[in-house]
Write a sequence for this structure.
């Protein structure tokens, strides 16, 4: 909005930048004047803004930076020991990012819960409960998310197959039996492909579990 933009520039000059004397701000304050763009262009040159008058976003960003520098310069003692809001919450953010960092893996309730989940999901038991927990997480992500369930629920439409293009390799002497054998062979190939896919998924899951070094959060170190 043009009016809001002009008011913003005037506010920055009046309250923060204060490059002009009060009596010299009249042309800039007259935001309804047709000559305001010329006054603004002169103002940009006077404050040494490197951007052109039509580069509004860049100009606003630069003027805000100038205002911050001047505000800090006027109140250096007030701001020098200030801590950014983001830094104040850095520790809490880190803890939230690692929800298991304070987890007591020797707690009987934790072990019982992991074991109950493993039994429910038919996951192989392991001596390290954290490893089992990671396996549970992988299974849930891969198989039990809404997207995974929706994908698994989708019905698969078969594609027409021309049996005459597939060589059986032997002849039973009966055309009908030959055709049935061809169908059985194609179904067997499809089952082998599904099995290979499951094997690949199992390999990926195992690699995801064992690829990371064992971490002991309590000791604050990584490695076996």
């Amino acid at each position: 909005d043009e009016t809001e933009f002009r008011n913003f520039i005037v506010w920055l000059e009046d309250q923060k930048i204060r490059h002009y004397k009060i009596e010299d701000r009249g042309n800039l304050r007259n935001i309804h004047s047709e000559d305001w763009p010329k006054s603004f262009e002169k103002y940009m040159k006077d404050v040494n803004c490197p951007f052109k008058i039509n580069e509004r976003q860049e100009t606003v960003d630069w003027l805000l930076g100038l205002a911050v520098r001047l505000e800090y310069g006027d109140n250096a003692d007030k701001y020098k020991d200030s801590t950014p809001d983001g830094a104040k919450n850095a520790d809490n953010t880190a803890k939230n990012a690692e929800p298991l960092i304070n987890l007591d893996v020797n707690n009987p309730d934790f072990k019982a819960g992991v074991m109950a989940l493993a039994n429910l999901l038919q996951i192989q038991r392991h001596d390290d409960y954290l490893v089992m927990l990671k396996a549970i997480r992988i299974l849930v992500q891969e198989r039990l998310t809404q997207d995974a369930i929706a994908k698994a629920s989708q019905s698969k439409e078969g594609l027409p197959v021309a049996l005459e293009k597939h060589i059986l390799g032997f002849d039973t002497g009966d055309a009908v039996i030959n055709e049935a054998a061809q169908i059985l062979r194609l179904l067997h190939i499809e089952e082998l492909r599904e099995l290979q896919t499951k094997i690949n998924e199992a390999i990926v899951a195992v690699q995801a579990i064992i690829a990371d070094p064992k971490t002991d959060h309590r000791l604050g170190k990584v490695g076996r």
Q: What stands out?
A: The chain is about 60% helix and 0% strand.
